[in-house]
Amino acid sequence: MYKVLYNKKISENSYEMLVEAPLVVKNALPGQFVIVMPREDGERIPLTIYDYDKEKGLLYLIYQVVGASTEELSMVTDEVFSVAGPLGNPNEICANPEEFKDKRIVYVAGGVGIAPVYPQVKYLHDHGFKVDVIYGARNVDLLLIRDKIEAVANKMMYVTDDGSFGDKGFVTTVLEQHINDYDICVSIGPVIMMKNVCDLTKKFNLHTIVSMNPLMVDGSGMCGACRCEVEGKPKFACIHGPEFDGHKINFNLALKRMNIYKQEEKEKWDQMKAKLSKEE
Amino acid sequence: MNDKKIKVRMQDAKERVKNFNEVELGYNDEEALQEASRCLNCKIPKCVEGCPVNIMIPNFIKAVKEGNLKEAYDIISESSSLPAVCGRVCPQEKQCESKCVKGIKGESISIGSLERYVADQAILNGFSSTKQIGKNGFKVAIVGSGPAGLTCAGDLAKNGFDVTIYEVLHKAGGVLTYGIPEFRLPKRIVQKEVDSLKALGVDIKTDVPIGNAITLNDLQEEYDAVFVGTGAGLPKFMNIPGEDGNEVFSANEILTRINLMGAYKDDAKTPIKKVKVAYVIGGGNVAMDAVRSLKRLGIEAHLMYRRGIDELPARKVEVEHAKEEGIIFDLLRNPKFIITDEKNSVVGMQVVKMTLGEPGADGRRNVIEEEGSEYFVGCDMVVMALGTSPNHEALKQSPIVLTEKGLIEVEGTKTSLDNVYAGGDAVTGAATVILAMEAGKKAAKEIIDRLIKKN
Question: How much is the ipTM here?
């Protein structure tokens, strides 16, 4: 069991959780992820690491409620059954900052994608980098942790679909305007957004790293549920990723593979909602 | 008349395909006594040689005959840490039972069923065999809680070592927990074995990915010895077109969802696809476990193997059970490619017939595609049970020497690193539970010899 210090709603459907997990954070680096089980009979939920305090052994997570299991996680108050990690590989820039010292770097985040982007920008900021961030969401209410990201980003560029904050449009609109200012792009968010970003950066030959979040079960290389097509070959996001060269990813396939259990997941969520409303 | 085994009672095939309860029900007291009475108690017992961990088989069978079940359990426990597991999943027909003198003219003694009987009675009656000596002050870390790690841990703990097991999943047991289905090895049995290790003082830390949370190097510095038993590794795929289809899974994924995550239960949080027709590709025990699990979900379950029935690497008894349960065997067949629709859902497979050729270098008969024999089969799931390739996650940032095949190189069980030992599938490639246990046992002995006898 892992003690949960808080688990609070931070937007319409997103939550922030603080959990005691000293062994998980001890050697964690930005880009890695964890697998959380709300209860012993729960599902294994892969979540990217949003922040950590190594001295206090604390792990910060941000997650979106997208189904029965994340709904169950959102109802946790005191403890979670399992937190395994850190899993996967660190972001390649954070793992070898020296190699990227003279590079101009832009991060492009969408929605809750800001959660995995934040520790990378913070880490690079702490290592003397000046990193710009383009952050988009549907509307102003869905822009998360603005104070925290602003404190570590060199320049923040916001964009919303409805223009309720920052520019009106999409992250790609903003990125295109500034695309010649950068040598490397790191994009994390919904798969469709990462695909659009990569379609754009390919045209401009801007190296782009993306973080894939496919279905997973064990997260340690055993099951192969998370395989993505990279340069025509299957790679496991859990141990070969989760970050890959975005220009080598087959995004159309990744989008389709996200739907494998869509029907089963919907049924389970509907059952859960029905049960919850009965209890009320 | 006594040249025949006492048959083990089983759940009727028609019933058992509707549940995940254990197939074999095991001997009752009378049956065990009768079977034990068949044993000749040979002066030079060949069966013991056939057992990878050299259980003193005639001695425990004699104790059963005399009604001393506690004594029988103690005799088995001297050699084996997981008797309730081995009694169920060991390929006895290729090991102890194949050497039994009774087998020359009739049927060998059912050693496996008797072992299981003794182990189950021990659980029922709360026997424990914790002959433990005082702490010796040495600390050993074990990476992976599968059969190799559990066995190594048990032997070391009994000899006074402080043992910590690191497991990446949330439950201990490795393949015994995520891989072998409930109907062959009930999870309560695995839990009992794990609990008895805990009673010996073994500390099991779950959720810890060695290589990321703690490196092998960290463990080397913190502990007097390390045993690596990380198991078989990444599931292999065929590299054929369509394999990225939404309903193409590894057998590991199907089994993990069902066994570790309990996806077969109605109220499970982890889903599993309940399709109409599924093909499992492969012929080993993992393929058999996967196909029989799918059958129990109400799926028309096929097993497709490129060689013939006699070449199936799975245990004979599993093949028999699978046939009884209505698994459809498509032998001498191989998929060419998988066909998916616009949503990436599997709709079928193009299959080719195969012909057996001459034995190859490994002694197994080659197979050749029959020209012009391709045909289409409709299905909505394909499961690959083709073995594994090594997983080096736990070895990250470590200079440990690997073989050409990427397995951990060992001499005995000692790796190239100081005080680091390894065994089980991480060293041999995918093999059996008992061989992993044998390696765990050998490593424990080498660690004891090195740390205690040399000091």
Answer: 0.94
